[in-house]
Structure to design on (611 residues):
């Protein structure tokens, strides 16, 4: 039996009640155009399209004939084609786009805070410019599609009941509740200056329950999906103060346009690092480490962490000041079970437009079950591992599991007598070898005895080490059980490494001026470089002075002037040293050689006197 089939829920009715009991409350950002909707409504507004390489797209099933049953029968479509749903047939033109924006009510208007470019360095702005230019070569969702999607969504969905699709997976440690939310469109780039736009958007909330014998199902962890990330940073323990709760319902703050999930309201600076940039960063870190080792700079003031310098920066606005959805709100959820939705189980194509983006950021996603290559998603077949919970037992079961492990260890514990006997055997062999060495014994016999002694010694050491490690483990388990029974718990945030943290309202100094500088600096640097190169041709000094001037202004806004001056002084000192070595290498070589000879004579004479 497969792992997937072994985790199928036993009682659908009980599963739905369980999902309802713990379903999350969603808080949108003011200005959000979309909310979770039923997929049947969406499918009726789409065409099923197949596109083969080098050929025009072919509409296989036109709207409104697309249904879940049609998609389930279609599956992944032909192996040599990309299957996708097309939601928007015709983008809005310029006049329609202006009319759409003017018709938005004040309650839907969105206002950005400090510009994202004012929160990153000059290198980040240059990367952002390159990323924007990359759309000229990449596949991109056409302009006006986002507004057309929002207009269609407003006309057809409006204030309909928001919907989620729930799934219950039972493992030996946890009962996992998965809530899948579908949005008709991700307008993160077009409306919020984010990383991408795409039709169709699936988001996931996973809750991890333990079965307490007295209290029944108890929520232990909550994990919110955010930008295809996975692992421990996605989850918070039920008693974590960052995890807001309404009764038994966790609160999810939804990123505007991106629909990523956050535990606290605020504006989040999101860093996205492309693979080529990751390799370049690794090389720069090696150079940084060599620099610090050479100049003994490990204790100096550090600048922005290197793992962020070469990342593209975007802001996720998860303010929670818009519509609230779900339990204890005016907009309760409609709940559907995943196993009753044939399209979610069988359709492996894209849930929106295929833009042929080689970075895949502008292509629609696949459904909850499948990756774009047709393989199963980790969050589907291993929801516990997706949140990094393998090896993290539920609190309600940990004390009992420790007792079971202690019983196993004690019953299989290495006997002290066995280790002592091995040590005694090694000692006996050592006595025999010492006696034989005083006699004219054959070398082969002595060598054989020595080999036996070495083997016996290693065995005794291994047994004694194993015995000591077992005793140490038993002591640790006993202490841990005592702490749990006394109600002591470790820090709920101990597992976090790089959690998402909302930006503070402080921002850079002289905020308005900093925002203006951030908007102009990258372009001005490029234009200045072109002008300097045109005047001075290939002379590097004017270009270096231009770059240094820009970095100086950056250091003023980012409060890193001391770091800049410190690095500049060290750099100039190294350049001066290099020039001196280049110009006077022969006298320097003669002086160093003479100094080495004097040192050797002095050192050897000192050793002779101290004999």
């Amino acid at each position: 039996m497969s792992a997937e089939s072994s985790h199928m829920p036993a009682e659908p009715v009980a599963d739905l009640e369980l999902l309802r009991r713990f379903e999350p409350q969603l808080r949108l950002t003011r200005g959000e155009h979309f909310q979770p909707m039923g997929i049947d409504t969406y499918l009726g507004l789409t065409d099923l399209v197949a596109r083969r390489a080098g050929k025009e797209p072919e509409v296989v099933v036109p709207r409104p004939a697309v249904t879940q049953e049609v998609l389930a029968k279609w599956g992944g479509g032909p192996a040599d084609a990309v299957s996708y749903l097309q939601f928007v047939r015709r983008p809005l033109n310029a006049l329609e786009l202006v009319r759409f924006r003017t018709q938005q009510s004040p309650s839907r208007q969105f206002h950005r805070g400090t510009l994202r470019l004012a929160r990153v360095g000059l290198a980040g702005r240059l990367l952002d410019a390159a990323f924007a230019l990359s759309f000229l070569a990449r596949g991109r969702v056409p302009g006006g599609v986002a507004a057309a999607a929002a207009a269609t969504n407003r006309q057809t969905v409006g204030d309909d009941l928001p919907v989620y699709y729930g799934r219950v997976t039972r493992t030996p440690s946890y009962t996992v509740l998965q809530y899948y939310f579908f949005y008709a469109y991700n307008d993160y780039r077009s409306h919020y200056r984010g990383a991408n736009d795409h039709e169709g958007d699936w988001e996931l909330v996973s809750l991890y329950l333990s079965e307490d014998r007295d209290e029944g199902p108890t929520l232990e962890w909550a994990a919110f999906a955010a930008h295809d990330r996975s692992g421990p940073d996605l989850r918070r323990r039920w008693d974590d103060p960052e995890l807001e709760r309404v009764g038994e319902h966790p609160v999810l703050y939804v990123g505007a346009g991106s629909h990523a999930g956050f535990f606290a309201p605020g504006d989040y600076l999101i860093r996205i690092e492309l693979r080529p940039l990751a390799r370049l960063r690794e090389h720069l870190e090696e150079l940084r480490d060599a620099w610090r080792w050479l100049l003994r700079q490990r204790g100096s003031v550090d600048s922005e962490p290197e793992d962020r310098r070469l990342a593209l920066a975007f802001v996720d606005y998860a303010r929670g000041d818009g519509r609230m959805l779900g339990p204890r709100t005016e907009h309760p959820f409609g709940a559907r079970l995943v196993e009753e939705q044939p399209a979610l189980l069988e359709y492996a194509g894209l849930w929106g437009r295929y833009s042929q983006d080689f970075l895949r950021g502008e292509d629609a996603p696949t459904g909850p079950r499948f990756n774009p290559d047709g393989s199963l998603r980790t969050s589907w077949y291993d929801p516990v591992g997706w949140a990094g919970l393998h090896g993290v037992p539920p609190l309600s079961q940990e004390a009992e599991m420790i007792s079971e492990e202690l019983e196993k260890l004690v019953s299989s514990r290495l006997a002290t007598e066995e280790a002592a006997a091995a040590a005694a055997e090694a000692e006996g062999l050592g006595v025999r070898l010492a006696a034989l060495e005083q006699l004219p014994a054959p070398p082969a016999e002595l060598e054989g005895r020595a080999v036996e002694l070495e083997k016996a010694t290693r065995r005794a050491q291994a047994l004694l080490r194993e015995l000591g490690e077992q005793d140490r483990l038993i002591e640790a388990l006993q202490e841990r059980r005592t702490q749990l029974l006394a109600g002591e718990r470790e820090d709920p945030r101990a597992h976090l490494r790089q959690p998402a943290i909302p930006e503070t309202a402080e921002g850079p100094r002289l905020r308005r001026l900093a925002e203006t500088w951030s908007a102009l600096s990258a372009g001005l640097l490029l234009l200045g470089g072109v002008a300097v190169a045109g005047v001075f041709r290939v002379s590097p000094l004017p270009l270096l002075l231009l770059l240094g001037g820009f970095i100086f202004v950056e250091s003023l806004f980012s409060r890193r002037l001391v770091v800049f001056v410190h690095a500049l002084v060290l750099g100039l000192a190294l350049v001066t040293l290099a020039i001196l070595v280049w110009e006077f290498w022969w006298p320097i070589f003669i002086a160093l050689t003479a100094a080495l000879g004097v040192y050797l004579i002095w050192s050897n004479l000192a050793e002779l006197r101290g004999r």
The first helix runs from residue 3 to 6. The chain has four domains: 3-91+142-273+311-392, 274-310, 397-485, 511-587. The CA atoms of residues 45 and 160 lie 16 Å apart. The radius of gyration is 33 Å.
